[in-house]
Amino acid sequence: RCETCSEEEAKYRCPRCMKYSCSLLCVKKHKLALSCNGVRDKTAFVSVNEFTDLNLLSDYRFLEDVGRTADAAARHPTVHSPTTKKLLYCLRNKARRCNIDLRTLPIGFTKRRENSTTFNCMEKKFYWHLKLVFPHCHAEYTLKGVPDDKTLADILKPYIDPVESDPVVCQRLKIYTVSPQSDVQILMKIENRKQNSVR
C-alpha cells in the first residue's frame, strides 16, 4: 500500500527515505511532509549483512565522482592565476619572517575558501581568521580580522567574561562563564595527523 494515501497499491519507492508511493501526487506530498529531496544518500551506512554488489558499485561510482570533482578543482583557473600565487607566496614569506609555519589547503577545500587571514604591510601585522569551538556547549563562533597582538584573554572576553560578555552568548556558554578562569583550558588542534590520532 501507498504510505501517503494508504488507498492505492504502491508503484514507486523513494530512493532517499524508502517510503512507498502510488502516484506523482503522493510522491510530491511525501516530499513536502518529510522535507525529503528524493535523492539517494550515497554515504548512508550499510551493514555487512545487507551489503550487495549494487552497494559496491554505488561506492565505486561515488569515489569516481569525488576523484572527478577534485580533478576539476585542481584545473580551476584560479589555481593557476598569477595573482593568487603571488598573494599566497607573499603571505607565506611574511609568516616565515615572523617564525610562523603557515600552511594552506588546496583551492577546493571549504576551510581555504572561508579563510580571511591577511597581512597588513603598513602595520606589519597579521589579521587572523579564528574559529572558537566551545565543546561543552556545542557552540562555534568565527572571528575575522583578529590582530596578532591581541591576547587570548581579550579574544575570549566577549564570550566567557561574566561582566563584559554579551548576555545571549553568556547564557549559551554558561558552563564557561560560571567556571573560574583558571579552570578554562584553551586547546589548539594539531593538524596533519591521522584521523584516529587527534591531539
From TrEMBL:
Keywords: Isopeptide bond, Metal-binding, Phosphoprotein, Ribosome biogenesis, Ubl conjugation, Zinc, Zinc-finger. The keyword Lyase does not apply. PROSITE patterns: ZF_HIT. Residues 2-36 form the HIT-type domain. GO terms for biological process: box C/D snoRNP assembly; maturation of LSU-rRNA from tricistronic rRNA transcript (SSU-rRNA, 5.8S rRNA, LSU-rRNA); snoRNA localization. SUPFAM superfamilies: HIT/MYND zinc finger-like (SSF144232). GO terms for molecular function: zinc ion binding. Required for box C/D snoRNAs accumulation involved in snoRNA processing, snoRNA transport to the nucleolus and ribosome biogenesis. This is Box C/D snoRNA protein 1.
